Amino acid sequence: MLTALAWRSLRRQPARAVVTVLGILAGVAGLRALELGTAGAFASVRSAYQAEAGPAALTAVPAGDAAGALPPGTLERLDRAPAVLAALPLARASAEPAEEMERWRPPLLPGEVSGLLVLGVDPERERGQGRFRVTAGNALPDGWLVGEDWAAERGLHPGAILVLETSTGTVRVRVAGLVAREGLGSANLGRVALAPLGEVRRLFELAPGEVHEVALVLRPDLDGDAARRALAATLGPGVSLVRPTERGKDVVQRVRSVTAATDLTSTFALFLSGFLVYGLFATGAAARRRELGLLRCGGATRLQAAGVLLVEAVLLAVPASVGGAAAGSWLARSVTRAIAPVAGTSLSLAGADATGAARTAAVGIGVAMLAALWPAIRASREAPLASVRGRSAAVRPLSTLSTLVAAAAVGIAGVLLALRPPGEASQARTYTLVLLLLAGAIGLVPAVLVPLGRRLGETLRVAGPGLRLGVAAPRWNPRRSGIAAGTVLACTAMAGGVGAVGLGWRAEMAAWADRSLRWDVFVRHPSGLGPRAVERLLHRPGVRRGTPVLVRRAEVITADGRHLPIAVAGLDPEACAAEDTFAFTPGTTGSPEDLVRSLADGQSAFVTSVVAEQLQLPPGGEVTVLTPEGPRRLRVRAEITDYTLNGFVLVVSDAFVRDSFRALRAELVALRLEPAMDPARFAASLEPGMHAERRDALKARVRGLVDASMGALDALLWMCALIGLLAVGTAVAQGSIERRSEMAVLSSLGLDRRGVVGMLCTEAAFTSAVGALGGVAVGILLGWIFAEASRRLGVAVPFLPPWRALLATSLAAVVLALPVALLPARLALQVPAAEALRGVDL
């Protein structure tokens, strides 16, 4: 019987059912998109390393999985190890086709390959290991193997000559064959070439015997963990043995830092969905008050009366949540596209995950059930005879208790935020208090809406009846109208909070770029810049000073044993001191020039504010860096503001990176030119293969990267806006249904069709405007909270009021509310006046 009554109610109120489904679907889709996009990002990193490893169970890499050369003799020791069945060395380099150099864009993130990734392999050792598959032509060592997709884009085929810009200049190599996009052939999105190891060392000026990693195929009869321990003891502290799935921690860390904001936004979308469902079922319970009273009079228990609404919630929540989980899979593509540029790697979606989809759908169903529970309980607790006699619960005045509870929620959240500011509290605590604050603000809106409508109605005495009746409409059901206005408030406030973070982040990045990217020209080469190339650039006519920039992936350990994957950036201390390159955090003691020059001792380092916050590492503390030459202990001299690689950087001298990581090649060289030297003329005078980028162009690309990092929020914020719009439309639609008899009476008294439409449109605009105005005030507060909370991530984002975002969101809420109100207005006018007066349902 409960199911039959629930289906009957859904058939009678299709608009409410559709809006409920859309609201739940939007919230679940946002949550699923973030979960699936993030999981896909992590899976992409793991699968890439797993594919490259092939049959290998372990990979020997420089200590801390550093991007550098293994200590000399590592391959020989592995060949002698009894546990190793096969040792497969690999050297990495990068190049670019000579004819594409004019279109080559240097990567923004250090270590990223924007051209062709060249992998040096040992053909004899690779035979039979299955780490790559030749699809056309001959195998190594007859020539180079290139990715089949990359070759197809350029019309290359076996036997073709490929002209590349390498460290030794322009070289011509023969394409022996093509490799499938699997195993080693899947690296760098298939933009890869395989070549004999010795030839790669020669063409890219690598040291004799240099190897960057060795994949290890272990004897199948040995215990993997025991073999790993035995090999680690043999190789010493300069080498780490990692499983393929353990690699890429630096990329995972950057992805997590990017998704911190999207976590909040997706949770907020589901939070708003819950309020929308609550408003819909509260209105539905009021409209069905007499029906539920008749059920009670016929012998139904309170549980059965409440069960009608709960069953209805289940019937709507299940398909909506399943549909939201499916829609989230499509939306996740936008999330991965936004994350990929900041992560510095190619990302893809995770495969089919029925368990994850079911888990997300269950969360949506649970939120919908909780939202419908209180209206169901309220409806079932009313006396049966009172329900039968009453026309509608909509005419009841607003509960004083609910207003007091909402005010208490706002007060408690405000006091707790004041006692422990967001910059000092944990993110979980801050975001929980934000949700409590928003819930209280939404609950207070009905108490403001009714007296405001009364005052405005008195002011509009000279206006038409449609306008006056429209602003008075919320008094009919203050709870329903208040929840609609409150949802608009929350959406506007969220737009303001995220807008403030975006403005502050862009301003902070711009200030950092102005200081750290203040050099005139940044010179790069697809294969990096070796020591001789760096010296030629620094002593070139027209150059006043400059610094090579050497960045290597590494791992640091604090004094209390905490680990953090990080990048170690080496610069010339003398040149940076002369250019005042670094932005020291407030409170730094000592002369900036002396602090920068202290890096030259090889035992000092600067930490970024992000690293200082993550590791609780203040100036004066010590940190250990794992390097191929063994652990190196550094003392922190100062804390700086730097957002290279999302701020996970330790700044040292260039000599330290060269000595500790066997790093011969610089990522780039930053140059200060003489005033008389024209940057364009200087760039034109460089050797072939070198790319000079002026600081304005580089700053523009950095700003583009920041915009891309904020792109993942856009789709989720649009979902919040959709939920707010649905809330307003639902309030107006339900009001027109409940008051059809009153509108019929007004029509009989002379209110024409235009007046009825104007009344409903005015109600929608008034409800949205009140919510938007409240959202502006709360949005300013949220903007400050989010900006302060960013300090917990080590990012001191300044608070900038997001006036443009608040204005755009407020205007959109009011303007879009008008067309949303037209549909229920037309439906209400289609009911004949005589039938409306008799109370015939739509």
Q: Pairing-aware structural class of the strands and helices? A: alpha+beta
Global mean pLDDT: 80
Specify the helix fraction band: 55-70%
| Assembly context of the chains | single chain
Q: How would you sum up the global shape?
A: elongated
Strand order of the largest sheet: 2-3-8-5-7-6
Largest sheet: 6 strands, mixed, barrel
Distance between the terminal alpha carbons, to the nearest Å?
23 Å
% residues in beta strands = 15-25%
Radius of gyration using CA atoms only: 33 Å
Number of strands: 19
Low-confidence segments: 390-395
Number of helices: 27
Structure at a glance:
The chain has 842 residues and is an alpha+beta fold. It contains 27 helices and 19 strands. Helix content is 57%, strand content 15%.
If you had to describe this structure to a student in words, what would you say it looks like?
The chain is of the alpha+beta class and 842 residues long. Helices cover 57% and strands 15% of the residues. The strands form two sheets. Strands 2-3-8-5-7-6 form a six-stranded mixed beta barrel. A six-stranded mixed barrel has the order 12-13-17-14-16-15, surrounded by five helices. Strand 15 and strand 16 form a beta hairpin. Helix 14 packs across helix 16, helix 16 crosses helix 25 and helix 25 packs antiparallel against helix 26. The protein is elongated. The two termini are 23 Å apart. About 1% of the residues have low confidence.
